[in-house]
Amino acid sequence: MSTINAVIKNGDNYEQTFVFERNGEMSGKKKIRSKLIQLFPASVGSLMCIPFGIMLGWPSPTYPKLLSASSPLPITIDQSAMIAGFLMIGNIVSTPVSTWSFFGTKYGIIFGLLGMFIGWIIMWYASDIYFLLSSRIIIGISYGYSVGQLKTYLKDLCSTDLSSFLIKTINFYVFFGVILAYILGYFLSFTNFSVAGMAVTVVILIACCFLPHSPKEYLRFGRIKEAETLIKCLQPDVNVEDEIQKLHVEMLIKEKGLSFFQSTSFKNNMQCIIIFLFLHFYVTIGSLPDFILNKEDRECLAELNYDVEWLKDYFQDNYLLPDVHDEKLLIYISVAGQKK
């Protein structure tokens, strides 16, 4: 907020007026427009989580078909657990390298979608369990890498408050994919299910090809004009030159940062990583829905009840409880609640 001091002569008297100006503050319409411009490409990029969600929900409607006497690809109940696990093994393997970006986060997302498309092709051609294992682990690896790229893309493209909100919604897209898998599995055969997975992945892949790079990546590629134009669209209230300088500084700091493997060489960092991995394992294993792995003697209503409960807990745990409760307590409540 600044003032302009003006002195006006009125006859023999002088009147002093103050005119208040707002610097760097947008009107309500401009704020909404800016948020929408940020939200649209971010939402399109987040769609890449859906093919993974479909594969995550794939076992539930598919296992009864594969375990039946008329199975197009016979498997045993013991093999079904291994097939389910390979998806998360791939996810874990690729997570440490998910921050590596050779051609920008946009192409990192596209690369992950290409990997998921290849995984669905392998599933389509599957003739034995090894095809199923290969398909699941490839999709897991592709998602583990691309979701890291997506988070970086959201942080670079959107304002801090909006990117924080959008990162929380990533699991919602995965959940939507799981629900879509339940629907597709009911109506489609094993082979046609894979075709549907390919079709969904291709549509999202084509949409992501039209995404813009983030301003930081335009600078990295030496495309300064594009970076300035995008900054004006995303943040019309900021000084473009100052923002360019700020991004240059952030890029220099990032170049001097430590990689995942370098950080593990420091004792304090290693302790934090071990704690993080333990908590991740604890929450993941402790909250596994057992009927996804074994659907025998389960009614469809059980799946619906679980989905509704999961959706309720998702919004509650992501948007309501974190502001009023301790994080450690939330972890215990979450695991205990999902095993009830």
Automatic annotation (TrEMBL):
Subcellular localization: Membrane
Primary subcellular site in the record, as a coarse category: membrane
Species, as recorded: Aquatica leii
Keywords from the UniProt entry: Membrane, Transmembrane, Transmembrane helix
Name the UniProt record assigns to this protein: Uncharacterized protein
Transmembrane segments annotated in the record for this chain: 36-59, 79-100, 107-123, 129-148, 169-187, 193-213, 272-293
One GO CC term on file: membrane
Source domain of life: Eukaryota
Record lineage: Eukaryota, Metazoa, Ecdysozoa, Arthropoda, Hexapoda
GO molecular function: transmembrane transporter activity
SUPFAM superfamilies xrefs: MFS general substrate transporter (SSF103473)
